[in-house]
Backbone:
């Protein structure tokens, strides 16, 4: 009987170690997923500190004014003639942080920050609102190659 009791005791200890091992793997997996969640979901953004240089158009997927800017860009094939990166702030904290950094550079009041928002890297200026962005793009397209 002693041999059988020893078997069950070993089995119990082994099962307990297996449970602890699986729980440890689960905790590590959750921590890694949370760490990955801190990184941007934009494939062009490697991490919060790395973002495109140059001109940036910030937008949101559910923004009707952003759609007007998109329509202008598409109708005038602006992306063929002008260099800029699109960054969605919709469910993307990393891109929103970049937007806020650019807005702070322009010393904008927080009530003036929204999308669409265009960062002109050459002049280090912020253009806010679809009317001003479309006007800016029209002027740039006149001098584009």
Residues:
């Amino acid at each position: 009987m002693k041999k059988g009791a020893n078997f069950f005791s070993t089995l119990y200890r082994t099962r307990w170690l297996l449970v602890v091992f699986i729980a440890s793997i689960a905790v590590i997996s959750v921590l890694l997923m949370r760490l990955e969640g801190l990184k941007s979901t934009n494939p062009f953004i490697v991490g919060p500190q790395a973002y495109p240089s140059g001109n940036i158009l910030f937008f949101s997927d559910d923004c009707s004014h952003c759609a007007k800017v998109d329509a202008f860009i598409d109708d005038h094939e602006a992306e063929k003639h002008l260099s800029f990166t699109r960054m969605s702030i919709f469910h993307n904290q990393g891109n929103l942080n970049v937007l806020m950094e650019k807005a702070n550079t322009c010393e904008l009041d927080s009530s003036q920050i929204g999308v669409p928002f265009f960062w002109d890297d050459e002049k280090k200026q912020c253009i806010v609102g679809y009317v001003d962005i479309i006007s800016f793009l029209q002027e740039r397209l006149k001098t584009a190659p």
